[in-house]
Amino acid sequence: MAKLPRYLFPKDYYADPSANVFNGRLYVYPSHDWEAGAAFDDDGGHFQMKDYHVISMDDVENGEVTDHGMILHVDQVPWAEKQMWDNDVIEKDGKYYLVFSAKDYNGVFHLGVAVADKPEGPFVPQEHPIRSSFSIDPCLFKDDDGQIYCYFGGLWGGQLQWYKSPEKLLKEGVDLGPAPDKKTQLYAPADVPALSSSVVRMSDDMLQFAEATHEVVILDKEGKPLKAGDPHRFFEASWMHKYNGKYYFSYSTGDSHFLCYAIGDNPYGPFTYQGVLLDPVVGWTTHHSIVEYKGEWFLFYHDCVPSNDVTHLRSLKVQRLFYNEDGTIRKVENE
Ligand code: FUB
């Protein structure tokens, strides 16, 4: 009997797993890493992914993992030029909606939608990105009342930082120190409130945002927003799941390499910071999803152990996740 954690598809490099249960089977929608030969840079220029695959299984611990093949290629997406990064899929009224992040021909990340009749695709992309969308790492969450929310955003490569410019911070009276540039948050004084993920309700047809985006505020135990200098503040890779009526917002801290989580009472938050879910893995990025399947909870994530690479050749992994009686999550063991 195989023991978790387990690598999921050793024949290819997949990352940024979004795990979802459709029709009683577990599907994982990852980014598809490959060796493009692009130089490493701070904006993630080395992540030149060009297509998506979907994998599935019916037994997380022992089951065979099926790769259903390519479900969408950047050449099929009229508005997207390159860098097909993280994505997620949700079912609504018998259709499957894949929301993904990619760069347009101006070098700006947006979110796009592609639609399918089956979880394994093929997915047909919309001609334009979602209006007013920006940044990366979409996570789709359906609440018990059927409303669907999209959480997204990331710094550096995800350009979330452009939406709080140095000019804006200066107007707010923030002393940016000697070297302000586009990585504002990271050059800002440690006590500036951290930039946040965004959340937005999706339109009924799942093709647009239904409202203006909201900031996902993470508070410390004293009710104050986490600060830019806190190694546990948001950076990228939002995920939302619900457990015992509470909303669990989890995320990557990017340059400090943790997966952390916070709990709230509704999809918009605020969320109160709880702790670290997973310590840093091998590789610069860390990214995850949390799902319940056949009565057990799982954390899907990635690391760079099989490729022996530090950045862009990542492999999928899964480990069990356990809750304490008070609803907090036990830190997940990577070994
Ligand atoms: O896969 C490219 C980027 O790396 C993702 O968008 C981030 O979350 C990080 O995993």
Shape: globular
- CATH architectural group: 5 Propeller
| Overall domain count | 1
Estimated share of beta-strand residues: 35-45%
**Which bin fits the share of residues in helices?**
under 10%
Low-confidence stretches: none
Question: What is the topological layout?
Answer:
Blueprint: E1 6-7, E2 14-22, E3 25-32, E4 51-57, E5 66-73, E6 80-82, E7 87-92, E8 95-104, E9 109-116, E10 124-125, E11 139-142, E12 148-152, H1 166-171, H2 184-187, E13 198-201, E14 214-215, E15 218-219, E16 236-243, E17 246-252, E18 259-264, E19 271-278, E20 288-293, E21 296-303, E22 315-321
The site of beta-L-arabinofuranose has 14 residues, from β2 and β16.
Written description of the protein model:
There is one protein chain. This protein is an all-beta fold. It is built from two helices and 22 strands. Strands 6, 7, 8, 9 and 10 form a five-stranded antiparallel β-sheet that branches. Strands 15-19-18-17-16 form a five-stranded mixed β-sheet, with no helix packed on it. Strands 1-22-21-20 form a four-stranded antiparallel β-sheet, with no helix packed on it. The two termini are 16 Å apart. The mean pLDDT is 92. Beta-L-arabinofuranose (FUB) binds next to strand 2 and strand 16. Keywords: Carbohydrate metabolism, Glycosidase, Hydrolase, Polysaccharide degradation, Xylan degradation.
